[in-house]
Amino acid sequence: MISKKGKLTNLKKSPFGEEEYDSALEREYMVELEHDAAVVNWTKKHGIKIPYTFFGFRRYYLPDFLVAYRDGTREIHETKGLPLLLWLSTKLKGQSAEAFCRAHGFRYKRITKGSTAFYGKV
92 by DSSP, 3-state: which? Predict the structure, then answer.
């Protein structure tokens, strides 16, 4: 699988005006966030590092997006292609992210192209 990397510019809801993407799914989701009336701002440049343990080694998970909504809700969003959902590391990162979000008053959402509503909670 080859990732499509690039940069979107002239973004209105990113505090930086531009953001890099690491896959076609990330790019599509960035466009979706830009057009979502409920979203105040979003970024990939959030600096969040979530520790998790993988086969006894401490690792750090860097979530894809931090999204803020008009109602004050903040969420961490992770985009994943369907095959990657089966990986152990994906499961461990998700569990760590959910715990991190509970501790910080955020919500965690995994975004997949195969979701019933194209983008949704898994």
Answer: helix
Q: Is the dihedral of CA 112, 115, 120, 122 positive or negative?
A: negative
For residue 72, the Cα-to-chain-centroid distance in whole angstroms is: 18
Question: What is the pLDDT confidence band of residue 64, given thresholds at 50, 70 and 90?
Answer: very high
User: What angle is formed at CA 59 by the lines to CA 55 and CA 65, rounded to 5 degrees?
Assistant: 130
Greater confidence, 119 or 32? Answer: 32
Residue 10 φ/ψ region, left for φ over 0, alpha for ψ in the -120 to 50 degree band, beta for the rest: left
CATH architecture of 6-111: 3-Layer(aba) Sandwich (3.40)
Domain ranges of the chain: 6-111
State pLDDT tens for residues 69-108. Answer: 999 999 999 998 766 666 767 889 989 999 999 999 999 9
Three-state secondary structure string covering 15-31: CCCCEEECCHHHHHHHH
Q: Which residues contact 53 (CB under 8 A, 6 or more apart)?
A: 59, 92
